[in-house]
Design goal:
Keywords: Repeat, TPR repeat. The protein is mostly helical and 162 residues long. It is 75% helix and 0% strand. The chain is elongated, with a radius of gyration of 32 Å.
Amino acid sequence: MVLLSQAIAYMGDDFMFQLYGKYQDMALAVKNPCHLNMAACLIKLKRYDEAIGVDRRREKPKALFRRGKAKAELGQMDSAREDFRKAQKYAPDDNAIRRELRAIAEQEKAVYQKQKEMYKGMFVVREESGGKGKSRNWLIMLWQWLVSLFSRVFGRHRVKAD
């Protein structure tokens, strides 16, 4: 990995700016795999933030795949899915991309099921056993009706004090 970082540093923007024509193409043919391999190494080392930052400007399928993989490991599922879908546009037959998109969908489904179980019954009104729940509901409705009736009757004849 040290050699990769040295190669990337050596072929920085200042160096690439000085090249032209076939020399620039030759330098890019060396520089691009260095970025891809550096991202792969960082993912294996579980240094996902660094793997995302290796080369943000690249729109090649491998670069998008590796960036998406790192984002997925960090839990940035929406952004990872976006990178995988972009990569899939460039390489529609790639099984690894399909597998990662399927893994994201399954993970989101599992999270949804876990949340569903966690919040299940949270907003459900439970009746008490023994039939007391129905009698209490009737009493509450009667009380609300009486309060409403009194407020209407006594609310009309109120004298305003100025």
